Amino acid sequence: MNSLFSRFSVTAVLLASVVTSQSDAASFPRRQIKSKPVAAEQARQLIVHYRNDARFARSAAALAGTAPQLESQLQLRSQQINRYASAIGVRFQPLRQMSTGAWVFRADKAMRVQDLQQISRQLQSNDPQIAYAEPDRIRRPSFVPTDPYFFSDQWDLQDTQVQKGGMNLPKAWDLSFGKDVVVAVVDTGYRPHPDLVANLIPAPGGQGYGYNFISDPDTARITVADGVTSARGPNGIDMGDWVDDFSCYNSDSSWHGTHVAGTIAAAANGKGVVGVAPQAKILPVRVLGKCGGQTSDIIDGVAWAAGLPVEGVPTNTTPAKVINLSLGGMDLCSKTEAAGFMAAKQKGAVVVVAAGNEGRNARLSTPASCPGVIPVASNGIDGSRAFYSNYGGHVTVTAPGGGRSSDQDWILSTLNAGRTKPGDEDYYGYYIGTSMAAPHVAGVAALMLAINPALTPDQVRNILIKTSRQAPANCVGCGAGLVDAAAAVSAAKGN
After folding, report:
1. Which region is the signal sequence (predicted)?
2. Which one of 187, 216, 238, 300 is the catalytic residue?
């Protein structure tokens, strides 16, 4: 076995020994994520929030044709939208009502987002009963496509005396392992990795884990029966987000949610990697599939994860105390997202999000620009802000995400060996991005809530800010500084 790849250094606090990998170097290949030329953004759905609208049971009856008055009202609304949509040759139909009360209308084909924005402006200008209308935009995983480097140990978890860019987790583990705190990973879903399955929360009904919130069967890669329009259902297993024509952002499947989940809560089981909160529980909420995911699906997934009602979906009996979203888009926070994140926060969930990978001010990206969230920037192994990381006043704190300052500057976590379809589940790989930084903070939040369950989302945020440390290298726009897990957990215990 090549010694360069043969060991994972883990503190004696957890395992009392050095953990040895279960396979040779070939099991840890260099990950190469292929980028694509930037194409015009398209979307197919419109979100419209009507003032003082009927909700949930009545809306379902209207769509089923058993509530004539509301059904007639929906037809009139569709006609109103289609008056403006006819200019670009599309027709809309009502699809469903969201957890926020807004309606989702779906066109018969995709169109430019600019055209949807124009329809939205016309609706708002001409109907005082519309609180807002906006495109149901696509959000995508925030990992950064890069060239491969050599593999390294989990520098991101180390004591800062060992690694300048580390998080001081060994001392935090003296106080908390995050036992039984539920962390929702709103992402591409999960793969049943042997380092994760012990910490995954079963799906409603007991088959698989978590829940799939992707409505579109093609996006979800799920076959539905004739007449069924939604792919939503129990089990958030990742079916792959690959495409064969570069029509989206990558060709191979990313298994992004599995990587994020491993950073949060890979088990301390004597092999592979270990997560920030190795005794926390992961609730997989699948919202990203082929070519990303709709805002409406993402926000309904966030609502369900927090324990809020979503029409047509069983009640979540294990509400998340922490919700991680390592996804985003290059635009301002929409009203739909703002309402959804604030509702989750008011329910008591700490919402942690990636600051974005565009190398610009985070106020220009979403969900980093949304209220009620904790946006996380990314630092490298030397403690400096990563070259790709968004920055600025909207950033709360910074955490390890990888920075490419050396061959070792990557984040190792659970993954899957499949290029497109699932392959070997006992597999590990490296990514960099604010997608990797956010779950480090979500894990620290779980450590804090395990030791002090009474903490509110605002208290968690304030502790993270107050206990963050000054960056040892250039980190302009990094919020309060680099997260210090030991200091944060200690403060949570005494709070």
Report:
1. 1-25
2. 187
